[in-house]
Amino acid sequence: MSVRLALLLGFALGLAACERIDEPEKTPPEEQVRVASPQPLPGFARGDARLRVAHTGLRRLDFAPIAGSGLVFRERITTDGLGHYAIVPEDLVESSSLDWGGFELIQHAREGFHFRYRDFLVRDPLLFERNWRTTELPQPVTIAGRLCRRFRLERLVGEAVAFELSIDGETDLVLASDEFDAEGQRVASMVYESFALAPQTGYTVWHTPANDEVALDARIEVQAQLDVRVLQPRLLPAGQGLLEVATVGDDPTERWLKLTYSDGIEPLFFLQRLQEPTPGRAARVDAGRVGRAPESTSGVAVYQLGAATAIQGQVDGFELIVVGKAPQAELLDMIESALP
Amino acid sequence: MNTPCQQFRIDWLSAEPSAAGHASTCAACAAWVRGCERARVALGGLGRLAVPAELELRVAQELSGDRSRRLERLLESSVRRNAPALLDERVRELLSGAPSESERGPHKAQALRALDLPPVPPVLERLIEEELAAPERHRAERISLGRLRAPEILTQRVRDSLRRKALTRLVLGPLLTLSAAGLVLWLSTRTRPEEHEYRFRVTQASSLDGLDPMARALAESLIGNAGTEGTPR
């Protein structure tokens, strides 16, 4: 195989060498853009403007299809600038198979998650600065009557995904965002269709968490804060760093440790059910196992949902769930690196 | 060094025209200027180094965004452990006697040997063994650029070049296309996900039915998809 490859490569390179290479064309001045890094972080990367700017707006969200049709709908977001927020679905614009009643219920149930993790947000400025290249695009745009600066963000590690943002010049709120996959295809977009500052919030029903989430101190060893044995990954997907540590659960008898990682923008979750490992299920691992069939009775199942990967299973008696927009192999490595 | 000398040296390094007179009255600055000029001449005489060949490979590797840098990633992302207090204590004990330079090396080695070193993560061992078992395969992965899209300017350039060389195009075009197609085919088959031996069984789920409602809600919310069940944590 390697001989054939060498011949093929040699032939292709020989042919390529016969071609003349012209001088590169100069980029027209109007297409030149200004690279913002490594200048100070732009305002949208220095905190969550939604939490400090009281506003309301109707926004349109468009998600590319995974299987079947895509999903386009409108929702109203309202914040009081003091940490309270509400996201209410308004209407379905496009979907061939979705039932509006069920969809509305699900959106309500996931309101907190959407605000915290679905909407574009720079979740860690240091990781953002390290993993993303920020370029300010030349032409400002008007979104919902607000003059916005435009930015393009490109991830420098892992898959080359990108975002294009329209940032309100006065408040640093993200009034439009487009997400592109590594192929350059748009996979999600959000745009405000209306916008108002300091809204009347007398009738707004603010979000209240449906589960009991208890934040732990991420600076202290997690094991020292919990009574049961916990796993912590030692090999993270490219560019990721620890963002939050918490325990969650609706039922006091069934609690999970939630480790949230991020590359600065995208979140990644590592959950472990808080119970002592099930006796008798620990894997027996042969030191020279590479190249042999695994002897472990542990197992995980991998689910692919578009760009997101979810892995769940029981490994060495620990019940684990990992969810994130990262390649499956990196998430499996992450799980393996957490094992004792 | 006083302020005029400091200011003169800053101006001189910045090639300010005002930095002409001071050196004629200050011997220290005159000597400093002569030293700088000698260094400049010496550095100017050095040959210019070529860009290392590895640079192109590393750039391609970064742009491809694949997972070929797993070993480096492992080392970069490993949790940084602080030196245990015991190490400080033992080093302090060993060095408190102010040993000579020749004695320090063995002392340090002895101190390090005495520590309880944490074991290497098993995943590191596996990744290194896999890479050592098939170095060509891993090297080939690093230069794969299949996921990048060709810029418009490249298409334009290829089109212009082919137009100018119509005869060449007629003869070499099909051959080049076939070669490129073969290369892309080979790369695409070579860059399929590897079969790894994990410490646990890995199965690919064909449907979402077995997925925990919480995990499903998390994944669907991440991509904006709306499922039919589950609540987020």
Q: Would you state the CATH class of the largest domain in chain A?
A: Mainly Beta
End-to-end CA span of chain B: 63 Å
* Count of β-strands of chain B: 1
Please estimate the helix content of chain A: 10-25%
Average of pLDDT of chain B? 74
Distance between the termini of chain A: 40 Å
For this structure, the quaternary state is heterodimer
Query: What series of H and E elements makes up the topology of chain B?
Result: HHHHHHHHHHHEH
Architecture (CATH level 2) name of the largest domain in chain A: Clam
Q: Give the amount of beta strand of chain B, in percent.
A: under 5%
**Pair with the most extensive interface?**
A-B, 99 and 74 residues
Largest beta sheet of chain A: what is the strand line-up?
Answer: 1-5-6-7-8-9-2-3-4
The helix/strand series of chain A, from N terminus to C terminus, equals HEHEEEHHHEEEEEEEEEEEEH
Morphology call of chain A: globular
Task: Indicate the radius of gyration of chain B in whole angstroms.
Answer: 31 Å
Structural class of chain B: mainly alpha
What characteristic shape of chain B results from the CA principal axes?
Answer: flat
Q: Please give the radius of gyration of chain A in angstroms.
A: 24 Å
* Count of alpha and pi helical runs of chain B: 12
Please describe what this structure looks like.
- Chain A has 340 residues and is of the alpha+beta class.
- Chain A folds into 2 domains: 37-197, outer membrane lipoprotein receptor (LolB), chain A (Clam), CATH 2.50.20; 214-285 and 294-338, Phosphorylase Kinase, domain 1 (2-Layer Sandwich), CATH 3.30.200.
- Chain A contains 6 helices and 16 strands.
- Chain A has helices at residues 2-18, 49-52, 100-109, 111-118, 125-131, 328-338, and strands at residues 34-35, 55-63, 71-79, 85-94, 132-143, 146-155, 162-168, 174-180, 186-197, 214-215, 241-251, 254-262, 267-273, 299-305, 308-315, 318-324.
- Chain A is globular.
- Residues 5-37 and 280-294 of chain A have low confidence and may be disordered.
- Chain B is an all-alpha fold and 233 residues long.
- Among the domains of chain B are: 3-44, no CATH class; 55-127, no CATH class; 150-190.
- Chain B is built from 12 helices and 1 strand.
- Chain B has helices spanning 3-13, 22-25, 27-44, 53-64, 70-77, 85-95, 101-113, 122-133, 135-142, 152-164, 166-190, 213-223; one strand at residues 201-204.
- In chain B, helix 6 (85-95) runs antiparallel to helix 7 (101-113).
- The longest helix of chain B is centred in the last third of the chain and has 25 residues, at 166-190.
- Chain B starts with a helix and ends in a 10-residue tail after the last helix.
- In chain B, 14% of the residues are buried.
- Mean pLDDT of chain B is 74; it is low at 228-233.
- Chains A and B meet through helix 1, helix 3, helix 4, strand 11 and strand 13 of A and helix 5, helix 8, helix 10, helix 11 and strand 1 of B.
- Strand 14 (299-305) of chain A pairs parallel with strand 1 (201-204) of chain B.
